[in-house]
Specification:
The protein is α+β, with helices and mostly antiparallel strands and 93 residues long. The protein has one domain. The protein contains 3 helices and 4 strands; from the N terminus they run ββαββαα. The strands form 2 sheets. A two-stranded antiparallel sheet has the order 1-2. It is elongated.
């Protein structure tokens, strides 16, 4: 059997599940869950947490999306350089 990363079920901490199987497991395990309601992270639906604010401080998916958004903003506000002949560098002649 090949190496697969394991994750911990948010509904039962004793469940160690292969990450690629986590979405299906969460659906099944949520049906039997009797604890306080968990919120679903909008950056990764497999993340179910009690305190979303605390979770977002360390959620890799959220942190990556912030970086991606910053890059997109930077690219959208970028002014293309102009050559001496008056044509944009990015625009083909």
């Amino acid at each position: 059997m090949s190496y697969c990363e394991l994750g911990t079920c948010p509904y039962d901490k004793t469940h160690r599940i292969m990450i690629f199987r986590m979405p299906k497991h969460i659906v099944k395990c949520a049906k039997n869950y009797r604890g306080p309601p968990l919120q679903t992270c909008k950056y990764n639906a497999a993340h179910r947490v009690l305190d979303m604010e605390e979770h977002l401080k360390e959620c890799d998916y959220y942190l990556r999306s912030i970086d991606d958004q910053a890059v997109q903003i930077a690219l959208s506000t970028r002014i293309p350089p102009v050559q001496e002949n008056g044509h944009d560098v990015d625009t083909p002649l």
